[in-house]
Amino acid sequence: MSSDKSIQREESASFNEHSLSYIRQAAEYGLYEIRGMGAKRRVPSFDDLIFLSASASRYPLEGYREKCESKTVLGTRYAKQPIELEIPITIAGMSFGSLSANVKEALGQAATQMGTSTTTGDGGMTPEERESSKTLVYQCLPSRYGFNPNDLRKADAIEMVLGQGAKPGGGGMLLGQKVSPRVAQMRTLPEGIDQRSACRHPDWTGPDDLKIKIEELREITDWKIPVYVKMGATRVREDVKLAVKAGADVVVIDGMQGGTAATQQVFIEHTGIPTLAALPLAVEALSDMNVLGEVQLIISGGIRTGADVAKALALGADAVSIGQGVLVALGCNHHTYQRADGEEVDVTADYAKLGTAPGYCHHCHTGQCPVGITTQDPELEPRLIPEVGAKRLKNYLQVLNMELTTLARACGKSNVHHLEKEDLAALTVEAAAMAKVPLAGTSWIPGTGSV
Amino acid sequence: MVSLKQLDLTDLSVRQVNEYLHGELLEERPARVEILNPDGLHSIAAGLDTEVDIDILGHAGYFIAGMNQRARVTIHGNVGWSVAENMMSGVVHVKGHASECAGASGHGGLLVIEGDASSRCGISLKGTEIVVGGSVGHFSAFMAQAGTLVVCGDAGPNLGDSLYEATIYVRGSIHSFGADAREEEMQVDDFEKVAELLSRAEMNFDAREFKRVSSARSLYHWNADAHQEY
Question: Which stretches of chain B sit within 8 Å of chain A by CB?
């Protein structure tokens, strides 16, 4: 018999290392954690769906030769000048303040090169952003930082933001270290103080008021440009119906995997529903109101690949919007940044100083982004060169669209908007129930009575 | 040049009126525009960006003179929610009472309300100067960042909650302060400021009767040791 009397180690399911760490941190600092990026937990996602591409019962199109259309039109309901895009992939609203001016410029350049739109954010419209973006969506946010009618009239569309997928029901936080003189000036607040964004709009409190507010925006812009309504995904069916009733041209639903520059961890991990679950609910709501096709639907929240885009379109979205994936394309979480001479500079040590590592960084809120993306620091910001960033982002968007059209052709479609629910099956019961598509190998859609 | 242009909302839609104000008005250049029979309609004279005098003759609805720039708009009656919302410059003068959120998120210009304003007057204010002849309701100047709110009557509960750098002056009673708002001693500059705003608003009150309310700035930084009101 061995004399080794070592204790058998068994972790508690409830009080595992993760929970212990959380409790210790709360006890030490007395404040909840604020961080950037999106949910860390794994939730049912587009990864749990697969395409039933064509073979005998369906006829595929030649992947490398036959054309597949990806043009997308948004805002056809009331606007005199709807938005016309070359691809159904848009760039989500991210503020100057949370992002550097160089990044905003890079987003505009890449979007313009790819024939798509980019979006402002909390903090208003910068001249560089307007100049670099052919199609720019101007967000009307609860904080109304930097919001003014002159910029409104320069916009190609308005996005009335009611919430974000990462923090539905909550406002954001721009910590003082990111509030540079320029950011402070745009937001009419003192330099260096924490800027707590409001969670609700100051001049209306419910859907009846929202309708009148949207009318006001239309009056000011002479009914020329589309009005989007963006919401975090929670009570999607009801919220979409109210947005449509309020007069939205386009509804944007942001699932819980959506990113943020900074908010409470408890929001990121414990509010909202997955993008996969939200999308079918939004489509059903539009269908119930007989406005499918009349009111366009944009889905966002954790979209990364062309497959994600294709699945979103197949489930009924007219377009997708990408934020976090765009930042990753620019270099977010990468161990190097590229200098003007093309040399790659390793910044692993800078990540370590933040207490993190490439691939695991969620320190956007600190303003100390090692690759110069989520920062206002004059030394860090130049690490992202607009032209370099724009090229990387253009490449990424191009790949997404190529993957999208490849999958569409494999399903026999000559237009990406012809993808349909019937082209999909689910790999898990949960995904089948949320997406309302059959579990692979069966015709069973949980919850619908089908077998 | 036309000296007086009359637009009757009995015959015209709000869209037609605003279309004129954004377009033809710039060519016709009337000295004054009268808008007749507003009858509680919303968004009248929204988005103006020219130096013109506009009189709205009667009671009007929500978002009247929203985002105004340069124009001087007088409403001869009461207004609904969010009059002069996000105003940039110019003057909006309400002869009657105003409903909630008057002057919300306004960046500049002067908003005068001769009667009472309801709750959240001056919410998210960013530089507009507001003078209320009567009283204001609860949560007025909530999250106000810059600008001035002068209340000649009383202020309701939670005045100036989460106030940033805006200043509030109240002549009557204050029901209660919101988080981070506090009364401070009036200085010479304050008396001058109040007197100047009262004069511009054509109101006859003595500036020495007013109290000053501003931010204690304790919510400015995310800090475990600060008293977290929330």
Answer: 14-15, 18-19, 22, 42-43, 46-47, 49, 61-63, 66-67, 69, 81-82, 85-86, 88, 101, 104-105, 107, 120, 123-124, 126-127, 142-143, 145-146, 162, 164-165, 219-222, 224
